[in-house]
């Protein structure tokens, strides 16, 4: 277990600087074009794969960094480069985390490499939990998974929505209801292997921001997957369902399910992405405030502008510290007793939204145009108070964890 330290070691600095180079030289120059095209940026992801940045090996190395800081450092730099392109590169991570969190060693060894492929054959993954009527309210999920014992197959039916990489992914991880009577405790996650008949992309969404990231519906009609595609295996599922049924009879607590386990593990990582966007906007605003002259002096000479920059930087540093704390706790196996993962995502997401708005204000008319990147950063940041649990849901999780009360 690594000690918590704010001083990065030489390996971490080297990796951070290497990603920063890619973000500055490859992502930044391409960002506006892919934002306009609103398509999955295959050439950028392939370039990331060519240099080893989009690869299972690289993410596994960062994931296993004993200080816990490998993943947040990587994501902050990528998203400093650009959030849409960053999510195209990092989006597979959510599907990979769900296999890591819920799968057996054998499933991890089989499916995670399938999601990344290699430099000559780049692959991507998608995690599909949300549905049209089940966003924050995961328990309202309707996609069904029914076991066909005669064939040892699971049959999936339903419609998933807003799935990052949905329909274009090689491997989809789908959360489905196996026992409707148990609410969120009656869910399980399934891998849908490449080319499985019955899985199709539905509507592709046109979005406000992160437009280089592909977001779409995933329609599942009579999708048959082998028994071994149930993450964690049937025996473990049966035991878990039996425990949940006992609790239901005894009127025990609710909560804890396949999708939530994935979100818990990924929240600090999403917070790190938001920190990257906020830092990028802050840097543009600081430069601009130093050089833009009005009333015969740089606008930063006004306290009204300078104090905003002071607040922006303070919030960004505070957000990063919350992200690093939660990342270290997760990697050290410490439980989030005060919902520290949710705190980091909440604060970093709100910071990205606020700081990018302040940056736009500091750039005045230029900030509102696509001549400067803060307009895009502001649109990109808005998703960080919505996906992977809205800010309201993070507050609910924190309040319930702190109080032990079923706050609604
Ligand atoms: C670009 C994008 C990418 C996404 N990627 C994925 C993905 O890869 N996989 C996936 O499964 N999902 C994904 N999502 C879905 C995302 O996680 C959901 O949009 C999010 O969880 C919110 O659900 P909802 O949109 O249904 O909002 P709702 O749940 O309908 O919420 C609407 C509003 O009501 C508030 N609200 C709801 N319940 C409460 C409450 N109890 N107390 C207080 N306020 C409440 C919410 O905070 C929000 O402000 C993505 C979404 C987008 C837009």
From TrEMBL:
<keyword id="KW-0274">FAD</keyword>
<dbReference type="InterPro" id="IPR006089">
    <property type="entry name" value="Acyl-CoA_DH_CS"/>
</dbReference>
<feature type="domain" description="Acyl-CoA dehydrogenase/oxidase C-terminal">
    <location>
        <begin position="254"/>
        <end position="402"/>
    </location>
</feature>
<dbReference type="InterPro" id="IPR006091">
    <property type="entry name" value="Acyl-CoA_Oxase/DH_mid-dom"/>
</dbReference>
<dbReference type="InterPro" id="IPR037069">
    <property type="entry name" value="AcylCoA_DH/ox_N_sf"/>
</dbReference>
<protein>
    <submittedName>
        <fullName>Acyl-CoA dehydrogenase family protein</fullName>
    </submittedName>
</protein>
<feature type="domain" description="Acyl-CoA oxidase/dehydrogenase middle">
    <location>
        <begin position="126"/>
        <end position="223"/>
    </location>
</feature>
<dbReference type="Pfam" id="PF02771">
    <property type="entry name" value="Acyl-CoA_dh_N"/>
</dbReference>
<feature type="domain" description="Acyl-CoA dehydrogenase/oxidase N-terminal">
    <location>
        <begin position="10"/>
        <end position="115"/>
    </location>
</feature>
<dbReference type="InterPro" id="IPR009100">
    <property type="entry name" value="AcylCoA_DH/oxidase_NM_dom_sf"/>
</dbReference>
<dbReference type="Pfam" id="PF02770">
    <property type="entry name" value="Acyl-CoA_dh_M"/>
</dbReference>
<dbReference type="InterPro" id="IPR013786">
    <property type="entry name" value="AcylCoA_DH/ox_N"/>
</dbReference>
<dbReference type="InterPro" id="IPR046373">
    <property type="entry name" value="Acyl-CoA_Oxase/DH_mid-dom_sf"/>
</dbReference>
<comment type="similarity">
    <text>Belongs to the acyl-CoA dehydrogenase family.</text>
</comment>
<keyword id="KW-0285">Flavoprotein</keyword>
<dbReference type="InterPro" id="IPR036250">
    <property type="entry name" value="AcylCo_DH-like_C"/>
</dbReference>
<dbReference type="InterPro" id="IPR009075">
    <property type="entry name" value="AcylCo_DH/oxidase_C"/>
</dbReference>
<dbReference type="Pfam" id="PF00441">
    <property type="entry name" value="Acyl-CoA_dh_1"/>
</dbReference>
<dbReference type="GO" id="GO:0003995">
    <property type="term" value="F:acyl-CoA dehydrogenase activity"/>
</dbReference>
<keyword id="KW-0560">Oxidoreductase</keyword>
<dbReference type="GO" id="GO:0050660">
    <property type="term" value="F:flavin adenine dinucleotide binding"/>
</dbReference>
């Amino acid at each position: 277990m690594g000690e918590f330290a704010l001083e990065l070691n030489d390996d971490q600095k080297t990796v951070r600087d290497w990603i920063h180079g890619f973000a500055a030289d490859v992502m930044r120059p391409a960002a506006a074009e892919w934002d306009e095209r609103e398509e999955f940026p295959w050439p950028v992801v392939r370039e990331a794969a060519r240099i080893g940045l989009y690869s299972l090996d690289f993410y596994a190395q960062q994931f296993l960094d004993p200080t816990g800081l490998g993943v947040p450092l990587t994501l902050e730099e990528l998203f400093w480069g650009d959030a849409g392109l960053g999510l195209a590169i990092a989006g597979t991570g959510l599907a990979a985390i769900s296999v890591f969190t819920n799968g057996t060693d054998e499933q991890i060894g089989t499916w995670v490499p399938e999601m990344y492929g290699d430099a000559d054959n780049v692959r991507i993954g998608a995690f599909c939990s949300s549905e049209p009527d089940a966003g924050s309210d995961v328990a309202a999920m309707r996609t069904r998974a029914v076991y066909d014992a005669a064939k040892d197959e699971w049959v999936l039916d339903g419609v998933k929505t807003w799935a990052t990489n949905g329909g274009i992914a090689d491997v989809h991880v789908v959360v489905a209801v196996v026992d409707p009577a148990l609410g969120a405790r009656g869910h399980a996650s399934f891998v849908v292997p490449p080319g499985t008949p019955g899985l199709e992309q539905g509507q592709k969404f046109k979005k406000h921001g992160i437009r280089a990231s592909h977001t779409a519906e995933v329609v599942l009609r009579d999708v048959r997957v082998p028994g071994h595609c149930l993450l964690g295996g049937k025996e473990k599922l049966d035991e878990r369902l039996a425990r949940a049924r006992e609790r239901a009879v005894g009127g025990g607590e609710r909560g804890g399910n396949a999708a939530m386990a994935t979100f818990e593990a990924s929240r600090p990582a999403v917070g790190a992405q938001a920190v990257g966007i906020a830092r990028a906007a802050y840097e543009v605003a600081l430069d601009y405030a130093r050089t833009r002259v009005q009333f015969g002096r740089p606008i930063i000479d006004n306290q009204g502008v300078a104090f905003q920059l002071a607040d922006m930087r303070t919030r960004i540093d505070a957000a990063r510290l919350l992200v690093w704390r939660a990342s270290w706790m997760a990697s050290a196996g410490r439980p989030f007793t005060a919902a520290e993962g949710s705190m980091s995502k909440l604060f970093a997401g709100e910071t990205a939204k606020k700081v990018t708005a302040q940056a736009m204000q500091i750039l005045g008319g230029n900030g509102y145009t696509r001549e400067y990147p803060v307009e895009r950063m502001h649109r990109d940041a808005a998703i960080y108070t919505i996906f992977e649990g809205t800010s309201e849901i993070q507050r609910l999780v924190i309040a319930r964890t702190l109080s032990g009360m079923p706050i609604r």
